[in-house]
Design brief:
Layout: H1 3-14, E1 20-22, H2 23-28, H3 33-42, E2 45-49, E3 52-55, H4 64-73, E4 91-92, H5 94-101, E5 111-115, E6 126-130, E7 138-141, E8 144-147, H6 149-158, H7 163-175, H8 181-188, H9 203-213, H10 240-244, H11 253-260, H12 264-271, H13 279-292, H14 298-305, E9 310-316, H15 324-336, E10 340-346, H16 350-362, E11 368-371, E12 389-391, H17 410-419, E13 425-430, H18 436-451, E14 455-461, H19 466-475, E15 484-487, H20 490-502, E16 512-514, E17 531-534, H21 536-552, E18 565-568
Parallel strand pairs: 5-6, 9-10, 9-11, 11-12, 13-14, 13-15, 15-16
Antiparallel strand pairs: 1-3, 2-3, 4-5, 7-8, 17-18
């Protein structure tokens, strides 16, 4: 087949499939992998995922990662020939369904799909859920089978998804009229306990709680009907005004007391099943409760009468980076002390995040807050000491590392280690210079090369990506004399290693490669990648211990993280060739 014939065949396959085509579909037309590779190199195709290409002439589709992952579930069958109920081809669900529906804030860092039978994937960015889906639980959005809004809410609750994120999804869905709270509330009531509410809490109270955690309280709908009170039956005997006024707010304990002719303290004793109450008084209160259809706000009661035993960990709203090891260490310390943790993303700058944190504390939704990002005057300012808040101080407003975590001195340790193995000429592929950690590693590298009497071929300006590492290795002249490369992080190191492999340079026999961060994949790549381990788990643990001491009124622990950085030599580095 000529190149023009191949492109026509691919174009036909990509029609109705967002301009995408899989290698399996291409093979059905006799197109081989080497032809796809040539087209990619010529710029006619773009590799957008393992075994999936986009025709460069087609506009980039929305939700590309989700569509690629869905196509890969059944790479042979064209999208138009798959069942619309998704029973055989899988369904976009959970946070990915939120993204496709255009609800719930920023997309997750991974793609979530639901399949009808258990299966696995090697793609670490894809999560497969095994669950049954009925036809009424699936809708089609932009050609993708996606769980409906109500089913998506249920899936998020079953997966114990972040309360604020779920609340944002619910609030936006109700505001757009995509779901009615009175329809949804009975289906979600069973999840109240999982989110720290009393087991008796209603589904409407759970939805209200989730939306409040998101800072998006449910408000009256277009027709004036309260989206929350719809989950409660109408008052039966509160007079004609109650029957004709759909906006009537929840009856209060004071209204019950007034109707029964008693004090609100007496009503409170009734609600606590006080056995010493006179039968006639009990009867009057029971009648008033029935007439007003009074139901106590169980969530508010728990906030007034006891601590939440929950700690909130704050991240910025928009961030492609989440420090999982640090969160793991902080959560473990909290759990050991009997606290549950919630991780929330708060939008806006320091002052707006500070106001949101104060709201969490004042409403007793959290006993304390550990923030990974600055909170303005709330931490360290006048009057800040009255609030149980600890700001980590290791990240800036964009969650870019600073302070201890941005220390570049391990770069000199790497150079010393490699110099001891006979290496003399080095290349550094740097990270984005917007990050203090990248600037520090670069500066230490330049200074240490001179101090140790070594040679530097130069510094390549990278951007933390695998691509930047690959291009640096690909473009390094064969006569450069470089025998070792220091990469800004493990993803850059992965690209460097793959770039050398593709050009036939043996690692570590002819070239040593060293990364940074000790990401999990470094242990399993071939060869395994030498790196720098950062004990972020202990950093998170000690920050949480400081917050716990503040909650208990104890002095702040003075311990420091020893050996924060540790070199981990692996298979990608070795002695220089003599």
């Amino acid at each position: 087949m000529t190149q023009a014939e191949v492109l026509r065949a691919l174009d036909a396959r990509a029609a109705g499939q967002w301009g995408l085509v899989t290698t399996a579909q291409a093979k059905l037309d006799g197109v081989q992998g080497v032809q796809l590779l040539r087209l990619e190199r010529s710029g006619a195709l773009e590799n957008v995922g393992h075994g999936v290409y986009r025709l460069a002439a087609s506009p980039p589709p929305a939700h590309l990662r989700i569509k690629v992952a869905w196509l890969r579930l059944d790479p042979v069958t064209p999208a138009r020939d798959r069942s619309t109920d998704g029973l055989r081809s899988g369904v976009v669900s959970h946070t990915s369904a939120c993204a496709v529906h255009g609800l719930g804030g920023r997309p997750a860092d991974f793609v979530e799909l639901t399949v009808s039978s258990r299966r696995t994937t090697r793609d670490e960015t894809v999560v497969l859920h095994c669950a049954a889906t009925d036809a009424e639980d699936v809708t089609v959005v932009d050609g993708l089978p996606v769980t409906t809004v109500p089913r998506t809410v249920l899936d998020l609750l079953r997966a114990r998804a972040d309360a604020a994120r779920t609340g944002t999804f619910v609030a936006e869905a109700t505001a757009r009229g995509l779901v009615r709270v009175d329809d949804l509330a009975p289906r979600v009531a069973g999840f109240a306990g999982a989110y720290g509410l009393p087991a008796q809490a209603s589904g409407a109270e759970l939805l209200e709680f989730l939306c409040e955690r998101a800072g998006r309280p449910l408000r009256a709908g277009k027709a004036g009907r309260s989206t929350v009170s719809a989950g409660r039956p109408a008052a039966k005997a509160a007079g004609p005004a109650a029957a004709s006024d759909p906006e009537r707010k929840r009856p209060t304990i004071w209204e019950v007391a007034e109707r029964a002719g008693v004090s609100h303290q007496t009503v409170s004793r009734f609600l606590k099943n006080d056995s010493g109450m006179k039968p006639t008084t009990r009867a009057r209160i029971e009648r008033a409760v029935a007439e007003l259809d009074y139901r106590p706000n169980l969530m508010a009661r728990s906030m007034r009468t006891q601590r939440s035993h929950r700690i909130t960990i704050v991240l910025p709203e928009l961030s492609g980076f989440v420090p999982i090891p640090l969160l793991r260490g902080a959560s473990a310390a909290a759990h050991e002390a009997g606290y549950m943790t919630d991780v929330v993303g708060l939008e806006g700058g320091e002052s707006r995040r500070a106001r949101s944190v104060l709201s969490l504390l004042e409403t007793r939704q959290a006993d304390g807050v550990l923030s990974l990002v600055p909170l303005g005057d709330l931490a360290g300012g006048q009057g800040a000491g009255q609030w149980p808040v600890v700001v980590l101080g290791e990240y800036d407003d964009k969650l870019q590392s600073q302070g201890r975590l941005a220390d570049g001195r391990p770069a000199e340790e790497i150079l010393r280690h490699l110099a001891d193995q006979g290496h003399r000429r080095f290349l550094h592929v740097a990270g984005s210079q917007e990050w203090a950690s990248a600037r520090n590693r670069r500066a230490v590298y330049v200074e240490a090369v001179e101090r140790l009497g070594l040679e530097s071929y130069g510094v390549v300006d990278g951007d933390w990506s695998v691509r930047s590492g690959y291009e640096a290795a690909r473009d390094l002249p064969a006569d450069s004399g470089v025998t070792a490369v220091l990469a800004a992080n493990d993803y850059v190191a992965l690209g460097v290693l793959r770039g050398f492999q593709d050009r036939g340079t043996r690692v570590p026999e002819e070239m040593s490669v060293f990364g940074w961060d000790d990401e999990e994949f470094t242990r399993y790549f071939s060869p395994s990648i030498s790196t720098v381990h950062i004990d972020k788990e202990e950093v998170g643990r000690q920050a949480m211990l400081s917050l716990l001491a503040l909650l208990r009124g104890e002095p702040e622990p003075k311990s420091e993280v020893t050996d924060l950085f540790r070199l981990v030599p692996r298979g990608s580095s070795g002695p220089a060739l003599r």
